[in-house]
Fold:
Amino acid sequence: MSDTNKISGLQLRSLISKEGQLELSLARVDVPEPGPDQVVVKVEATPINPSDLGLLTGPADLGKAQSSGSGDGVKVTAPVSAAALPFLATRLGESMPVGNEGAGTVIKAGSSEAAQALKGKLVSMVGGSMYAQYRVLNARDCQPLPAGTTAAEGASWFVNPLTALGMTETMKREGHKALVHTAAASNLGQMLVKICNEDGIGLVNIVRSAEQAKLLKGIGAKHVVDSSSASFQDDLVQALVETGATIAFDAIGGGKLASQILTCMEIAINKTATTYNRYGSSVHKQVYVYGSLNTGAVELSRNYGMAWGVGGWLLTPFLQKIGRPDQARLRERVVNSLKTTFASHYTKTISLQEALDLQNLTAYAKRATGEKFLINPNKAD
Structure:
């Protein structure tokens, strides 16, 4: 394709009206010419992550979703409760593009050396608005993929891999020696198992079924506890004793699990205590909530002393905190192990139009562990 050719492409948009209605649609947008340090990428693969669903569907009631139109003119609507609207004030009435990360081929490049070096290459990319056929990006936001890598293999190179690495980095920086992870059978959870095995880090995996426990043990997980088991608390305490884990990353969010983890950490610590302290152990116990599989309130029963914390953890602020040199180090590790440690597995690959099919939408919006959808915006239906 000549750099002088004007192109346009479809882009998936999400809008929540001031009246409280979600509207998902496809818009055809002109693709601007790249600036000196920019490239135009033909998007060939982009995953649907839980973090994408927060923008794509928001708090809409998808059980009441309706579809109209067909092909490029398909539109999905669903109600949003009035109680949620005050928290969405800054996005009401604005049609917003969606998609955090992806991969594709650079078809146009600006005049700078960095941009020209990417022309014709398959790259992974980050920067939002990825649920589109074309994306204009700064060259620095693109990562060339090794020879023999496919777009699908490189599409999930950023969010899950760097989140998993960010957990172990945070653990080390805050002085802990092992960690706990919930909803651990996810794509991200499987990556974390492999990272911790490679780096010799103790990891306690909390899952929600015997099938998920079997999956993780099959890839080398040493400590797996099933929250649906009657012996869950005893099993968790024993795993904490064996690993010494005092920091947890919780994908569930709402409910009692964060409190249960802190309680079990306190019990595990006290098993080796030699003196009684009425304020509880002096060892700091930390739970970071990084997901919202349960959107309800975090319920805390304070029976774990005073040395504890519960807070939020998000990838972007973490990366900003560690700076560019450490970001580059982590990115290089990911790219070098895309087919092994950081491999992602997808339930289904769909087009932009198929992403708005009600059956597909209902399936990927469940955020079910082990089920991940990939969009190929240039896939023919």
